[in-house]
Write a structure and sequence with these properties.
Strand order of the largest sheet: 4-5-6-7-8-9
Distance between the termini: 56 Å
Number of strands: 9
Number of helices: 10
Helix content: 25-40%
Shape: globular
Keywords: 4Fe-4S, Iron, Iron-sulfur, Metal-binding, S-adenosyl-L-methionine
Largest sheet: 6 strands, parallel
Pfam families: Radical_SAM (PF04055)
Protein name: 4-hydroxyphenylacetate decarboxylase subunit A
Order of helices and strands: EEEHHHEHEHEHHEHEHHE
InterPro entries: 4Fe4S_Fe-S-bd, Organic_radical-activating, rSAM, rSAM_sf
CATH superfamily of the largest domain: Aldolase class I
CATH topology of the largest domain: TIM Barrel
Cofactor: [4Fe-4S] cluster
């Protein structure tokens, strides 16, 4: 015996695992399967807010953060919701709330700089200094990202910028890549980078979406290899932090 939940999105067979029709799920906005499924297998993991609703929450909690507290906009990439993000950032500045962002910077320059004028602290990923390698690993080249970083520095922006590299063995862990990034940083008066050790925390999310996770094997970095890379930056006079044991 088999039955269908939520207009054909989820199919259960008597002796098979649940199957999901992702083509139907991608156009869903009301998540009816989360309430219809008798076993409560699907769960709603998102909630929509208006900018005013989100600012009300931030205003409510602001007093409990302490002098070093603030709001970090992460994702995905928060700049994909540019208009909403701008509304919230403007509200944060009116309230005196420190703002931080984690972004790829892979956006049209006008949109990117529009957001950054309201940001006090930024992490920007530079995943590979070779554009073809960057495209192979991320599906896009690095030209727009590097150009936006240059434009940000030239704009007179007063915030703090820390570059970041998710470090993957065999992809961006070479001395050559590090030296190219060091040169780019010196050319643009950048002096902080955070090297993140490869992990697979996102693997289950890929699998839940029915996708293949390309780094299910390989990519691991040893502590010794991370320290060797760090030494290249330190010797060049650049502050280099490993992992999440940082000064921020």
């Amino acid at each position: 015996m088999s039955f269908c939940l939520s207009h054909g999105r989820h199919h259960h067979g008597a002796r098979t695992a649940p199957q999901v029709d992702w083509n139907k799920c991608k156009d869903c906005h009301d998540f009816p399967c989360t309430s219809i499924c008798p076993n409560r297998a699907p769960k709603q993991c998102v909630r929509e807010y208006t900018s005013d609703e989100l600012l009300q929450i931030l205003r409510r909690d602001f007093s409990s953060w302490g002098s070093n507290g603030g709001v970090t906009f992460s994702g995905g990439d928060p700049i994909t919701q540019h208009d909403f993000l701008i509304e919230v950032l403007k509200g944060c500045h009116k309230l005196g709330i420190h703002t931080a962002i984690e972004t790829s910077a892979h956006f049209p320059r006008e949109k990117f700089l529009d957001v950054m004028q309201y940001i006090d602290f930024a992490f920007i990923d530079v995943k590979n200094m070779d554009s073809e390698a960057h495209k192979a690993g991320t599906s896009v080249g690095n030209e727009l990202i590097l150009d936006n970083i240059r434009a940000l520095k030239q704009s007179g922006w007063k915030g703090r910028l820390v570059l970041r590299q998710p470090t993957i063995c065999g992809y961006n862990d070479s001395e050559e890549n590090a030296k190219k990034l060091i040169s780019f940083m010196k050319e643009n008066d950048l002096f902080e980078i955070n090297l993140l050790k490869f992990h697979r925390l996102g693997q289950t999310k890929w699998e839940q979406l029915g996708k293949t996770y390309d780094y299910a094997t390989g990519g691991e970095m040893t502590d010794e290899a991370m320290t060797a890379l760090q030494s290249l930056y330190l010797d060049a006079g650049i502050a280099c932090y490993i992992g999440h044991h940082t000064s921020f």
